[in-house]
Design a protein that fits this description.
The chain is built from eight helices and seven strands. The chain has 213 residues and is of the alpha/beta class. A hairpin with a 2-residue loop joins strand 6 and strand 7. The mean pLDDT is 93.
């Protein structure tokens, strides 16, 4: 949709999403690692905490360190997940540029419909984007090097485009394009709250193995 505006203005299209980076990039972790972003700004985009714990345990069982990103307000949630899994919480401690640097070195990223998921997709890192009520045609993470001109995503259904796997919740109402089942940003979405951990874990493993193949 943004690229269509460029057409109307007579500006040459540029489909690249530019992720901020620090002026002097900090050295990342030596061991292979994953990045997870458990806590979006709004509840209606949130996957359940038990799912994150199971996912992170599965990633750690495959030899990956796991880092949790988030805003300062997400620190409590991330701390609980970190305590339960042995992951390292960075919530509220990193700038967007520092998160960009962290993402570039990751083996995989998993997150909901939020800014950091778009950043991960743009870096080229294997990305699993968890979607519930949001319209993926409008809000789906843009895969690295995707030129379009159409959206990489359809309204309904999960699938992979480039380095991004968009995993959509189940239910005939998905995506409802509304703010949660109770129609406000503080409400939760049943399609995400009922998404089984096994489904997300299988998708993450598929993405990891496709890179190694």
């Amino acid at each position: 949709m943004g690229l269509a505006l460029a057409d109307r203005l007579g500006i040459e299209r540029c489909a690249e999403v530019v992720v901020p980076r620090t002026e002097q990039r900090e050295s990342g972790p030596a061991a292979p690692y994953a990045v997870c972003h458990p806590h979006p700004k709004f509840n209606y985009k949130m996957w359940h905490e038990a799912g994150w714990i199971a996912l992170i345990q599965a990633l750690r069982a495959r030899g990956l360190q796991v880092f949790l990103t988030g805003a300062p307000d997400d620190a409590e949630c991330c701390a609980r997940i970190a305590e339960a899994t042995g992951a390292s919480s960075l919530a509220g401690t990193r700038s967007l540029a520092q998160i960009g640097d962290l993402l570039r070195g990751a083996a995989i990223f998993i997150g909901p419909d939020t800014v950091v998921t778009h950043m991960a997709a743009a870096t080229g890192v294997p990305t699993v984007a968890l979607f519930g009520p949001s319209n993926p045609v409008k809000w789906g993470a843009w895969p690295a090097a995707w030129q379009g001109p159409e959206s990489p995503w359809q309204l309904r259904g999960s699938g992979r485009r480039g380095n991004v796997y968009l995993l959509q919740g189940g239910g005939d109402c998905v995506p409802c394009r509304l703010e949660g089942c109770d129609r406000h940003v503080a409400s939760f979405s049943r399609c995400l709250q009922e998404m089984p951990a096994e489904r997300v874990i299988a998708c993450a493993i598929e993405m990891l193995e496709s890179v190694r193949a």
